[in-house]
Amino acid sequence: MDKLAIVVPCYNEEEVLKIASQALREVLDDLAGKRKIAEDSFILFVNDGSRDRTWELIEEEHREHPVQVCGVKLAGNVGHQFALTAGLITAMDMCDVTISIDADLQDDVTVIEEMIDKYHNGSDIVYGVRRERKTDTFFKRTTAQGFYKLMGLMGVKTVYNHADFRLMSRRAVEQFSKYQETNLFLRGMMPLLGYQTDMVYYDRKERVAGESKYPLKKMLALAFNGISSFSVKPISLILGLGMFIIIVSALALIYALISYFTGHVVPGWTSLILSIWFLGGLQLLAIGLVGQYIGKIYIEVKHRPRYNIEKVLAGEES
Ligand code: UDP
Ligand code: MG
Q1: Quick check: 72 and 48 in contact, CB under 8 A?
Q2: Which of 5, 71, 178, 214 has a CA 20 to 30 Å removed from the CA of 47?
Q3: Which ligand has the shortest distance to the CA of 7?
Q4: 12-57 pLDDT, tens per residue?
Protein backbone atom coordinates (compact mmCIF):
# COMPACT_ATOMS: atom_id res chain seq x y z
CA MET A 1 0.00 0.00 0.00
CA ASP A 2 1.41 3.41 -0.90
CA LYS A 3 1.99 5.97 1.78
CA LEU A 4 0.67 9.43 0.95
CA ALA A 5 1.95 12.75 2.27
CA ILE A 6 -0.23 15.83 1.77
CA VAL A 7 2.04 18.87 1.82
CA VAL A 8 0.43 22.15 2.88
CA PRO A 9 2.36 25.44 2.95
CA CYS A 10 0.94 27.84 5.55
CA TYR A 11 1.60 31.51 6.04
CA ASN A 12 -0.51 33.24 8.68
CA GLU A 13 -3.27 30.68 8.34
CA GLU A 14 -4.53 30.48 11.94
CA GLU A 15 -8.15 30.89 10.84
CA VAL A 16 -8.10 27.95 8.46
CA LEU A 17 -5.55 25.56 9.92
CA LYS A 18 -7.90 23.49 12.07
CA ILE A 19 -10.52 23.33 9.34
CA ALA A 20 -7.92 22.24 6.79
CA SER A 21 -6.49 19.63 9.13
CA GLN A 22 -9.93 18.19 9.82
CA ALA A 23 -10.90 18.08 6.14
CA LEU A 24 -7.65 16.50 5.04
CA ARG A 25 -7.70 13.93 7.85
CA GLU A 26 -11.15 12.90 6.69
CA VAL A 27 -9.77 12.39 3.19
CA LEU A 28 -6.91 10.27 4.57
CA ASP A 29 -9.31 8.14 6.65
CA ASP A 30 -11.62 7.68 3.71
CA LEU A 31 -8.86 6.63 1.30
CA ALA A 32 -7.20 4.36 3.86
CA GLY A 33 -10.62 2.77 4.48
CA LYS A 34 -10.92 2.08 0.76
CA ARG A 35 -7.42 0.59 0.89
CA LYS A 36 -6.09 3.05 -1.67
CA ILE A 37 -3.38 4.46 0.58
CA ALA A 38 -1.49 3.24 3.64
CA GLU A 39 -2.91 3.67 7.16
CA ASP A 40 0.08 5.78 8.22
CA SER A 41 -0.34 8.37 5.46
CA PHE A 42 -0.04 11.88 6.81
CA ILE A 43 -0.41 15.64 6.36
CA LEU A 44 2.75 17.74 6.44
CA PHE A 45 2.10 21.36 7.35
CA VAL A 46 4.94 23.70 6.42
CA ASN A 47 4.92 26.83 8.51
CA ASP A 48 6.40 29.55 6.32
CA GLY A 49 7.52 31.92 9.06
CA SER A 50 3.99 32.86 10.10
CA ARG A 51 3.62 35.75 12.50
CA ASP A 52 0.37 34.50 14.00
CA ARG A 53 -0.48 31.31 15.93
CA THR A 54 -0.19 28.98 12.93
CA TRP A 55 2.75 27.02 14.34
CA GLU A 56 1.18 26.58 17.79
CA LEU A 57 -1.91 25.19 16.08
CA ILE A 58 0.18 22.78 14.01
CA GLU A 59 1.87 21.56 17.22
CA GLU A 60 -1.50 21.14 18.84
CA GLU A 61 -2.84 19.13 15.89
CA HIS A 62 0.28 16.96 15.96
CA ARG A 63 -0.24 16.23 19.67
CA GLU A 64 -3.82 15.21 19.03
CA HIS A 65 -3.05 13.21 15.88
CA PRO A 66 0.60 12.17 16.13
CA VAL A 67 0.57 9.92 13.05
CA GLN A 68 -1.69 11.86 10.74
CA VAL A 69 -0.41 15.38 11.32
CA CYS A 70 3.25 16.36 10.98
CA GLY A 71 4.84 19.77 10.71
CA VAL A 72 7.92 21.55 9.46
CA LYS A 73 8.79 24.97 10.76
CA LEU A 74 10.85 27.18 8.47
CA ALA A 75 13.10 29.71 10.16
CA GLY A 76 11.55 32.66 8.35
CA ASN A 77 9.14 33.58 5.57
CA VAL A 78 10.55 32.32 2.27
CA GLY A 79 7.39 32.49 0.16
CA HIS A 80 4.97 29.90 -1.15
CA GLN A 81 7.18 28.29 -3.78
CA PHE A 82 10.09 27.68 -1.44
CA ALA A 83 7.87 26.60 1.44
CA LEU A 84 6.28 24.04 -0.85
CA THR A 85 9.66 22.83 -2.06
CA ALA A 86 10.87 22.47 1.52
CA GLY A 87 7.78 20.43 2.32
CA LEU A 88 8.10 18.17 -0.72
CA ILE A 89 11.76 17.46 -0.11
CA THR A 90 11.15 16.77 3.59
CA ALA A 91 8.27 14.46 2.75
CA MET A 92 10.21 12.68 -0.01
CA ASP A 93 12.00 10.24 2.30
CA MET A 94 8.92 9.58 4.41
CA CYS A 95 6.38 8.53 1.79
CA ASP A 96 5.72 7.01 -1.66
CA VAL A 97 3.59 9.76 -3.12
CA THR A 98 2.90 13.43 -2.32
CA ILE A 99 0.05 15.82 -2.97
CA SER A 100 0.52 19.55 -2.53
CA ILE A 101 -2.45 21.74 -1.69
CA ASP A 102 -3.03 25.22 -0.26
CA ALA A 103 -4.12 25.61 3.33
CA ASP A 104 -7.21 27.63 2.46
CA LEU A 105 -9.07 24.65 0.92
CA GLN A 106 -9.83 26.55 -2.27
CA ASP A 107 -8.84 23.44 -4.14
CA ASP A 108 -11.36 20.63 -4.04
CA VAL A 109 -10.16 17.90 -1.67
CA THR A 110 -12.62 15.40 -3.12
CA VAL A 111 -10.57 15.02 -6.30
CA ILE A 112 -7.64 13.69 -4.26
CA GLU A 113 -9.11 10.22 -4.67
CA GLU A 114 -9.13 10.62 -8.44
CA MET A 115 -5.50 11.78 -8.31
CA ILE A 116 -4.54 8.65 -6.38
CA ASP A 117 -6.40 6.48 -8.91
CA LYS A 118 -4.48 8.08 -11.75
CA TYR A 119 -1.25 7.54 -9.83
CA HIS A 120 -2.11 3.84 -9.49
CA ASN A 121 -2.71 3.82 -13.24
CA GLY A 122 0.90 4.77 -13.78
CA SER A 123 1.12 8.58 -13.77
CA ASP A 124 3.98 10.15 -11.86
CA ILE A 125 2.51 13.64 -11.88
CA VAL A 126 -1.19 14.47 -11.75
CA TYR A 127 -2.15 18.12 -12.19
CA GLY A 128 -5.20 19.59 -10.55
CA VAL A 129 -6.73 21.85 -13.19
CA ARG A 130 -9.44 24.41 -12.56
CA ARG A 131 -12.45 23.96 -14.74
CA GLU A 132 -13.73 27.52 -14.54
CA ARG A 133 -12.82 30.64 -12.72
CA LYS A 134 -16.26 31.56 -11.51
CA THR A 135 -15.29 32.50 -7.97
CA ASP A 136 -12.46 34.79 -9.07
CA THR A 137 -12.92 38.49 -9.50
CA PHE A 138 -12.92 39.70 -13.10
CA PHE A 139 -9.54 41.26 -12.46
CA LYS A 140 -7.88 38.12 -11.15
CA ARG A 141 -9.37 36.03 -13.93
CA THR A 142 -8.18 38.21 -16.78
CA THR A 143 -4.75 38.84 -15.30
CA ALA A 144 -4.26 35.14 -14.65
CA GLN A 145 -5.32 34.15 -18.14
CA GLY A 146 -3.14 36.85 -19.65
CA PHE A 147 -0.30 35.41 -17.63
CA TYR A 148 -0.67 31.90 -19.06
CA LYS A 149 -0.87 33.32 -22.59
CA LEU A 150 2.26 35.42 -22.06
CA MET A 151 4.13 32.43 -20.66
CA GLY A 152 3.20 30.44 -23.74
CA LEU A 153 4.43 33.24 -26.03
CA MET A 154 7.71 33.33 -24.17
CA GLY A 155 8.18 29.64 -24.74
CA VAL A 156 7.58 28.45 -21.18
CA LYS A 157 5.57 25.25 -20.99
CA THR A 158 2.90 25.47 -18.32
CA VAL A 159 -0.32 23.61 -17.71
CA TYR A 160 -3.20 25.99 -18.35
CA ASN A 161 -5.16 26.86 -15.20
CA HIS A 162 -3.09 24.65 -12.96
CA ALA A 163 -1.75 26.19 -9.78
CA ASP A 164 0.15 24.11 -7.26
CA PHE A 165 -2.48 21.50 -6.46
CA ARG A 166 -0.64 18.47 -7.74
CA LEU A 167 0.24 14.86 -7.08
CA MET A 168 3.86 13.83 -7.45
CA SER A 169 5.28 10.36 -7.04
CA ARG A 170 8.32 9.93 -4.89
CA ARG A 171 10.62 9.55 -7.87
CA ALA A 172 9.20 12.71 -9.45
CA VAL A 173 10.02 14.62 -6.26
CA GLU A 174 13.47 13.04 -6.16
CA GLN A 175 14.14 14.10 -9.72
CA PHE A 176 12.72 17.56 -9.04
CA SER A 177 15.08 17.92 -6.05
CA LYS A 178 17.99 17.71 -8.49
CA TYR A 179 16.92 21.00 -10.04
CA GLN A 180 19.15 23.18 -7.94
CA GLU A 181 18.05 26.62 -9.10
CA THR A 182 17.14 29.31 -6.63
CA ASN A 183 14.70 31.14 -8.90
CA LEU A 184 11.85 28.72 -8.47
CA PHE A 185 8.74 28.49 -10.54
CA LEU A 186 7.38 25.05 -9.75
CA ARG A 187 4.64 25.02 -12.34
CA GLY A 188 7.15 25.54 -15.10
CA MET A 189 9.48 22.87 -13.80
CA MET A 190 7.14 19.93 -13.61
CA PRO A 191 6.74 19.56 -17.40
CA LEU A 192 10.56 19.42 -17.61
CA LEU A 193 10.66 16.21 -15.59
CA GLY A 194 9.17 14.36 -18.52
CA TYR A 195 7.32 11.68 -16.61
CA GLN A 196 3.88 10.43 -17.51
CA THR A 197 1.33 13.03 -16.42
CA ASP A 198 -2.41 13.23 -16.12
CA MET A 199 -4.99 15.80 -15.04
CA VAL A 200 -8.02 15.98 -12.83
CA TYR A 201 -10.55 18.80 -13.13
CA TYR A 202 -12.25 20.67 -10.32
CA ASP A 203 -13.96 23.94 -9.47
CA ARG A 204 -12.03 26.29 -7.26
CA LYS A 205 -13.91 27.60 -4.25
CA GLU A 206 -13.65 30.69 -2.12
CA ARG A 207 -11.20 30.68 0.74
CA VAL A 208 -12.82 29.07 3.81
CA ALA A 209 -11.50 31.85 6.01
CA GLY A 210 -8.81 34.50 6.19
CA GLU A 211 -7.63 36.52 3.23
CA SER A 212 -5.35 35.97 0.27
CA LYS A 213 -1.65 35.96 0.98
CA TYR A 214 -1.03 36.67 -2.69
CA PRO A 215 -1.64 40.37 -3.25
CA LEU A 216 -1.14 41.87 -6.71
CA LYS A 217 2.49 42.66 -5.97
CA LYS A 218 3.32 39.02 -5.24
CA MET A 219 1.32 37.85 -8.26
CA LEU A 220 3.29 40.13 -10.56
CA ALA A 221 6.54 38.99 -8.97
CA LEU A 222 5.54 35.35 -9.54
CA ALA A 223 4.67 36.05 -13.16
CA PHE A 224 7.88 37.90 -13.86
CA ASN A 225 9.94 35.28 -12.08
CA GLY A 226 8.19 32.56 -14.06
CA ILE A 227 9.16 34.14 -17.34
CA SER A 228 12.66 35.22 -16.43
CA SER A 229 13.60 31.87 -14.91
CA PHE A 230 12.52 29.85 -17.88
CA SER A 231 13.10 31.94 -20.89
CA VAL A 232 15.80 34.17 -22.30
CA LYS A 233 13.40 35.35 -24.98
CA PRO A 234 13.16 38.92 -23.62
CA ILE A 235 16.88 39.26 -24.37
CA SER A 236 16.39 38.03 -27.92
CA LEU A 237 13.62 40.58 -28.30
CA ILE A 238 16.07 43.37 -27.47
CA LEU A 239 18.50 42.01 -30.03
CA GLY A 240 15.73 41.91 -32.61
CA LEU A 241 14.68 45.45 -31.76
CA GLY A 242 18.26 46.65 -32.19
CA MET A 243 18.45 45.11 -35.66
CA PHE A 244 15.11 46.60 -36.57
CA ILE A 245 16.19 50.10 -35.58
CA ILE A 246 19.42 49.82 -37.54
CA ILE A 247 17.30 49.04 -40.60
CA VAL A 248 15.05 51.99 -39.82
CA SER A 249 18.13 54.18 -39.57
CA ALA A 250 18.98 53.29 -43.16
CA LEU A 251 15.53 54.52 -44.17
CA ALA A 252 16.06 57.62 -42.06
CA LEU A 253 19.33 58.15 -43.93
CA ILE A 254 17.54 58.19 -47.26
CA TYR A 255 14.82 60.50 -45.94
CA ALA A 256 17.32 62.88 -44.36
CA LEU A 257 19.45 63.05 -47.49
CA ILE A 258 16.42 63.82 -49.65
CA SER A 259 15.36 66.56 -47.25
CA TYR A 260 18.92 67.89 -47.23
CA PHE A 261 19.21 68.10 -50.99
CA THR A 262 15.77 69.52 -51.53
CA GLY A 263 17.08 72.18 -49.22
CA HIS A 264 14.45 72.97 -46.59
CA VAL A 265 16.25 71.84 -43.43
CA VAL A 266 18.10 73.80 -40.77
CA PRO A 267 21.88 73.20 -40.81
CA GLY A 268 22.94 70.31 -38.58
CA TRP A 269 19.59 68.52 -38.61
CA THR A 270 20.65 65.78 -41.05
CA SER A 271 23.73 64.62 -39.19
CA LEU A 272 21.93 64.90 -35.86
CA ILE A 273 18.92 62.84 -36.84
CA LEU A 274 21.11 60.18 -38.43
CA SER A 275 23.29 59.90 -35.33
CA ILE A 276 20.25 59.48 -33.11
CA TRP A 277 18.77 56.65 -35.14
CA PHE A 278 21.97 54.85 -35.88
CA LEU A 279 23.52 55.09 -32.43
CA GLY A 280 20.23 54.12 -30.78
CA GLY A 281 20.02 51.01 -32.91
CA LEU A 282 23.67 50.18 -32.39
CA GLN A 283 23.32 50.46 -28.62
CA LEU A 284 20.30 48.18 -28.49
CA LEU A 285 22.05 45.70 -30.73
CA ALA A 286 25.10 45.69 -28.47
CA ILE A 287 23.03 45.30 -25.32
CA GLY A 288 21.10 42.46 -26.92
CA LEU A 289 24.32 40.77 -27.95
CA VAL A 290 25.83 41.01 -24.49
CA GLY A 291 22.49 39.80 -23.18
CA GLN A 292 22.74 36.66 -25.29
CA TYR A 293 25.90 35.69 -23.45
CA ILE A 294 24.43 36.54 -20.08
CA GLY A 295 21.41 34.44 -20.98
CA LYS A 296 23.68 31.50 -21.69
CA ILE A 297 25.56 32.00 -18.44
CA TYR A 298 22.23 32.13 -16.66
CA ILE A 299 21.14 28.83 -18.15
CA GLU A 300 24.49 27.23 -17.33
CA VAL A 301 24.62 28.31 -13.70
CA LYS A 302 21.27 26.69 -13.07
CA HIS A 303 23.01 23.33 -13.36
CA ARG A 304 19.81 21.65 -14.34
CA PRO A 305 20.02 17.94 -14.98
CA ARG A 306 20.25 17.45 -18.72
CA TYR A 307 18.07 14.39 -18.87
CA ASN A 308 15.81 12.37 -16.61
CA ILE A 309 15.95 8.62 -17.01
CA GLU A 310 12.57 7.02 -16.71
CA LYS A 311 13.42 3.34 -16.88
CA VAL A 312 16.49 1.15 -17.37
CA LEU A 313 16.31 -2.33 -18.80
CA ALA A 314 19.40 -4.39 -18.12
CA GLY A 315 20.41 -7.97 -17.43
CA GLU A 316 19.37 -9.33 -14.07
CA GLU A 317 22.00 -9.37 -11.38
CA SER A 318 23.02 -12.83 -10.23
N1 UDP B 1 1.75 30.97 1.40
C2 UDP B 1 3.02 30.67 1.93
N3 UDP B 1 3.94 31.69 2.02
C4 UDP B 1 3.69 32.96 1.58
C5 UDP B 1 2.41 33.23 1.00
C6 UDP B 1 1.46 32.22 0.93
O7 UDP B 1 3.29 29.55 2.33
O8 UDP B 1 4.56 33.82 1.69
C9 UDP B 1 0.75 29.88 1.32
C10 UDP B 1 -0.61 30.20 1.93
O11 UDP B 1 -0.61 29.93 3.31
C12 UDP B 1 -1.53 29.27 1.15
C13 UDP B 1 -0.87 29.20 -0.20
O14 UDP B 1 0.47 29.65 -0.03
O15 UDP B 1 -1.56 27.97 1.71
C16 UDP B 1 -1.59 30.04 -1.25
O17 UDP B 1 -1.81 31.34 -0.78
P18 UDP B 1 -3.19 32.10 -0.95
O19 UDP B 1 -4.33 31.15 -0.77
O20 UDP B 1 -3.18 33.27 -0.06
O21 UDP B 1 -3.12 32.56 -2.47
P22 UDP B 1 -4.37 32.75 -3.50
O23 UDP B 1 -5.16 31.48 -3.45
O24 UDP B 1 -5.11 33.92 -3.03
O25 UDP B 1 -3.69 32.95 -4.83
MG1 MG C 1 -5.87 30.62 -1.88
Answers
A1: no
A2: 178
A3: 1
A4: 999 999 999 999 999 999 999 999 999 999 999 999 999 999 999 9
